[in-house]
DNA sequence: TTGGTATTGATTTTT
DNA sequence: TCAATACCAA
């Protein structure tokens, strides 16, 4: 058997081995899309004998291209992998333009205009033309025209009057780019397609073209694909119309049809088995996407068990929402006995700006996280300054970069001076830089005489840039970027400048500059090995490739990578005790193609999703679909019922997204987090294909939980006043009125114990939630609890109904006897399992009067506390607020009849219905403790203890995160052109 | 004319 | 939280 085909199902195999030269693979979420595509690449190399440098593989995002490289390296080896022409459309185009751009009159050493440059240029011309068009709107419309391949002239021909205003801006923008020798993102594609259309010999070597996420291609990218394949006409595309979420970037789902029309011999293969998600999640997601009636029906078959229903949680405010996520993450982590680690959780957001509250809540609670998407490393002001110096040094014609740094650090060059200079340069038809040089050397003068101070400042600037250029000329190797950064920071006394300007966080800002240096160093090290030659395009007879000064070339490439990558991977500082395990917070867009065991999608209200400014609401629905289908085992959607800030309703009330109509939420969702008893946990383990945790391990975490249920808020999304009376007085905990006061509350307790602080829960209790100062209302009986959640019973019934057929597919065990007493019986069984089932040495429900350290939530009277191990001593403030052990009575949602794979419970002795097992969690802890010394679950132990102990280190991480402020964590992306290959070599090889 | 301080305003998604 | 604007003192 061909190892390439190992582990592929029938449809995947068919796709991989298809002899059709034009192949479309339609691959819904979790169907092994990337696996199939990489296998196809490997198959083409090994069975068709193509050389890797003759295969082009286009992805859409950098992350996707990195993943593809990694997978291919495993499949075909690094040697071959590194020679593939693989990358984002933009980066591949850049490579072609660098080598062959001269054929279409592109000037050497062109730079890439990032969105900041674009915005600045457009802003300037709008001002000059006195246009009333908004900058952002103009930017978007110009980009759209370009994505359709329309030049300013082309637009003006078919334009209406109002469009003509834009055409002027468009023209002006284009000439500004040309003047600075810049290409914007659209130009990269556009000019490359010009190149290949006029000079197809540049790609005459290409044997096969593969495109990932084809539904996200725009017209130009589609044309590029065809041009790449103009010789061989062998194309494989993988895509899913349901996951098209880049329409705002002119992506056209129509390209699928267009391609079929263009190539009559198109073969279409459908993948429909989902290997990622629980059946319950798929059902819910499928129902969301099927609301789109224009969409062709497409099957999506679950291969996993039904699992537990997804959650749609209502909460009072965005802040409560964030705190709830903290609670649920901790609850999941603790109650699954080390099965789930921090890196198994993801929070997916419609907008990156939603992250702030979540980040602060996580920071306070000691949840380590990393933010993906949102603000980019290379966009930080301090980094940007250095980069702009480098850009000017690289190419003095880059007027926008020059304008950005002309008075940074301050050189007494103010607005007026700049106005004189720019208008003078324009009149003289000179680049700004040349004009400035002429002025200070006395060859020219401005309309109005410049101030002495300003002139002196300009003089210093020119000297610095000239010196930098000199330095660059002297440096004829790949170290140029690093050399230049060092030189510039030194000459600017940049660190002192940062201290002066940003006294609050000058250290992190300086650290960012250091990080930039580090990146440059890495590039240099990589290129010195000359491995990068393999990244070059293959030589083609008869077409000359353009050569450049090595140092300049290295700098240009560095800057291009920066513009195209905009994020970098920070190497994990694996210092002792630093957890590398982090919760991912990401935009939904940036999460495409990825998966996590547990996914949270907060803010599912109208205006957020669909976004209030969204143009196509179908796309927003697909966005929700994409977000939901990232989840493997647990999916949480949530919505704050009030949005105090920008809410459109009078009191800031929100409305649930129309994508989740009542008939859907009633049948496919539960209202609160699932009870995480044994069977649920086992189902999670099975879906993740991880070993089931032992019951011991599952007990271990419980004592640190304030509750084993998701019950701090009512299912309707109010704070539960019966338990948290004092907090309801000020229900916008959200705005965190006076943290100091609360902190002092906490500090009434003994300052104590590494243990306390190490749980990471002290922090949370003290700041995240408002604890009632007195214990009067702390106790809630389970009966009260049930009374408060009447709907749960029916909900669980719905779940069992909807899950029956899914059961059948996977039932390993005989079904529980169904019938009248079924619900109770099941519940009892699962609960008693949970607290003392056959997984442990104890078969009986635990002896009630055996003294055991209780979990905090169900605190025993203080007399019992004396028997706690010294280190687990609980401060009086915390122990006092709940005085009685809370009996746990099975409630509706603990029913999980879907998970018949948990076979242990059938053997469990369940009490007679009359005497329900009123087991306190105290006992449950006892079981856990007792069996810690036993043998049960020994093999799972390392995992479990890691998950648990890390709480200690979470805390420390948090502290550093809090000090640094939010979003200091560097993103996980890495620019391409081999940076990641180097990483791989280092980590993988060593 | 500059540069500091205060106020206000604003925040889709990515290459 | 950050950035752009507005105003005032030098």
Automatic annotation (TrEMBL):
The keyword Transit peptide does not apply. It catalyses: ATP + H2O = ADP + phosphate + H(+); Couples ATP hydrolysis with the unwinding of duplex DNA by translocating in the 3'-5' direction. Residues 752-763, 793-806 have a biased composition (Low complexity). This is DNA 3'-5' helicase. Keywords: ATP-binding, DNA-binding, Helicase, Hydrolase, Isomerase, Nucleotide-binding. Residues 709-724, 981-990 have a biased composition (Basic and acidic residues). Belongs to the helicase family. UvrD subfamily. Residues 279-593 form the UvrD-like helicase C-terminal domain. Residues 6-278 form the UvrD-like helicase ATP-binding domain. It comes from Penicillium salamii. InterPro entries: DExx_box_DNA_helicase_dom_sf, DNA_helicase_UvrD-like_C, DNA_helicase_UvrD/REP, P-loop_NTPase, UvrD-like_ATP-bd. SUPFAM superfamilies: P-loop containing nucleoside triphosphate hydrolases. Residues 708-769, 793-897, 970-990 are annotated as: Disordered.
